[in-house]
Structure formats: C-alpha cells, structure tokens
Amino acid sequence: MELDVRHLRVLCAIADTGSLRKAALQLGMTQPSLTTQLHRIERAIGGTLFTREQTGSRPTALGHSVLSRARPVITEMAALVAAARQEARDATGPGRQRRLRIGSVGSRAVAAWLRRVHERLPDTDTTIHVDVSASALLRMVAADQLDVAFVHESEGFPLRVPPDAEQRVLMDREPQFVELAVGHPAAGRPVVRLADLAGDTWMVDPTADHEYAAMRRVFSLAGLNPRVLQVRDNATAAELVASGEAVRPCQPTSPPAPGTVVRPVQGDPLAVRLLFTWRPNALSPPALDALYGELRAAYLDLANVNPAYAAWLARHEPVLPEPPDHGRDDQGRDDQGPYDHGPYDHGPAAARCTAGGPAGPR
C-alpha cells in the first residue's frame, strides 16, 4: 500500500485525540475499520506507530517522527486546495482578473519591458519567468505555462520552435560585445579584434543554450583555439574578468562591471537572433503588437544609453522591425482595448517574479 494524505490524516487524528475510538468518531469511521487502516499503514511503513495503553493510544518514537513530517504535508495540502478553489471561483466569477504570463532569457531589457507592461495593464496580474535556457522557455510556451517569451538564438544553432508556437523577430542579428579588464592591452581601443583576444581565456555560461558551441564555431572559422572556461556563477565570472584572468562575451546593452570595460568586436563575429514567441490564441493580434512594441521600445531605450551600441545601431538602422498595425485607430490605440486577451483569462494570482536559472552577464 502506498501512503497518501488520507492516511496521514488518520495518524494525526489518533495522535490528537489520544484514542482510536475518538479518532474514528472524528473521521466518521467505525473503530474496527480505523484499527484495520492503522495496521495497514504500519505495515507499509514497517514499524509500530502507536502503543495502546489504559489511558489511550500514544505515539512511539517512530510515530513521533512520522507525525512531525505528516503535519506540514497536511497543512500544505489544505492550503493548496483552498487556493485552487479560490482561483477557480475568481476565474469564472464576475470581475475576474486577467493574467499575463511572460517568459524571458536574462536581459537588461526585461525590467523596463515589465515596467511598461505594468503601466499599460495596471489591473492585469502580470508574471515574469526568467531562465537562461531559451529552449526551456519555448517548452513552457508550448505547454501553456507561458503566454509569450523573449528568447535569443545563437548564430548557427537554430532553436527548435514548437510546432504550435509562433514567433516574430525583434532583431535578426544582435552583435555580442566583449567584456575585459581595464588593464587589458586591448581595453583602450574603441573596437577590438578577435585575434587580439586569442591568447586570453574566454568564459561562457554552460546552461545557456549552444553558447559554448557557438563560440567554438566562431573561433574555428577565425582559425583560433583559445581556452574556454564554463562558469555558471555570474559574480565569479565578473571577478575573473576584472582580475584579468579571462574575458567573456556580453550583450551590447551590458554596462561594464567594476574594473572592466565593454567593447564591440570588429566584424561582429559573435551574434544572436532575438525572438518574440507566443502561444497561438493566447492574445489577440493587437495585444501581441502592443507587447512586441513595448519590448522593442524598452530595448531601444536601453541600447541608447550605451554610446558604443547606440553608434553601432546608427550604422545599421533599421534593425528592429516595427510592429504591424493590427486593429489600431488613427491615434495608434488598439480597437479592442490595451490588451484584448481573448480566450486566455487564467484567473488571479499574486504578482511575482520567478527565476529558472542565472541570468548571467547577458
């Protein structure tokens, strides 16, 4: 027999009442059936949980150990059921709160994007899930765990977009800059060459999809073979760069950490594609356009703060496509409201931010 919450409630009832008879009355059972249930539970565990005395039933040492673990489980289960029932009532009742579930890879644009969405949708419960793995986010979109996701795709290693997901390109080729110590011989140059860093140790995050393989591909095409370290911890990686022990690629919007500089690489050999992905029917076309537009605006605001990247964008404009005008009036407003969610009202939940992996230096 496998134990479940029912059996844990039996044990707690016996311990709380101190009597099989009283526990049976509390649980709405007969005493013989409760005694049989207790024996089955003890056989499943492999030890005696209660001793019978003239004054009642008392937990054994093993019983106390099991009870100490059973009570939190029962409490959590009760809370889970109560919360689920409340959410179900809110989702089907009048005045239900809309919910928008956003996923994103680690990017400095995420905070500004989320702030814009909150300002546009103050009454919508908007959640953000950040994960270093773009593939993991796409699987969550396909599994109806996210409505939209902002992901990047390493050049030469296309992502497997689920067949039931759609996507729009935010930027076809975002150059990856490089972060190096202020004392590095190449730090004083406005643009560094890949060959200038061939003797350095490079770092990548091993949890980022294809980042290591994409870097090796670039080095191979350039005829280089530098040492590459795989470092997950962003704080450690930043310290290694600042100390001059290593260099690492970074998003062009990244500010330099203390003791480091961020520089573009000549010819932009390292690049990723930025994608906006969504689950079909999660949002109306005007709502998707609005979300995409907010992401694009947040990204451009961030990019213009970095003079080197702003100059790069000026030389390559236009590189971020404008959202199409689906259902907008002459003032640019959506005909169906700021975000017409269509069929995807999920019910309320507390606003939250979850992280499925380190955002890293990206």
| Percentage beta strand | 15-25%
Cα separation of the termini: 50 Å
Largest sheet: 6 strands, mixed
Number of helices: 10
The SS-based structural class is: alpha/beta
Overall morphology: elongated
List the main descriptive attributes of the protein structure presented here.
single chain; 362 residues; three-stranded antiparallel beta sheet; 10 helices; disordered C terminus
Give a structural overview:
With 362 residues, the chain is α/β, with parallel strands linked by helices. 38% of the residues lie in helices and 18% in strands. It is built from 10 helices and 13 strands. It has helices spanning 5-17, 20-27, 31-45, 61-92, 109-120, 134-142, 211-221, 234-242, 285-303, 307-316, and strands spanning 50-53, 56-59, 99-104, 125-130, 148-154, 166-175, 177-181, 202-204, 228-230, 248-250, 260-263, 271-278, 353-355. The strands form 4 sheets. It has a 6-stranded mixed beta sheet, sandwiched between helices. The chain has a 3-stranded antiparallel beta sheet with strand order 10-7-11. A two-stranded antiparallel sheet has the order 1-2. Helix 1 packs across helix 4 (61-92) and helix 5 (109-120) crosses helix 9. The longest helix has 32 residues, at 61-92. It is elongated, with a radius of gyration of 28 Å. The chain starts with a helix and ends in a 7-residue tail after the last strand. Residues 326-362 have low confidence and may be disordered.
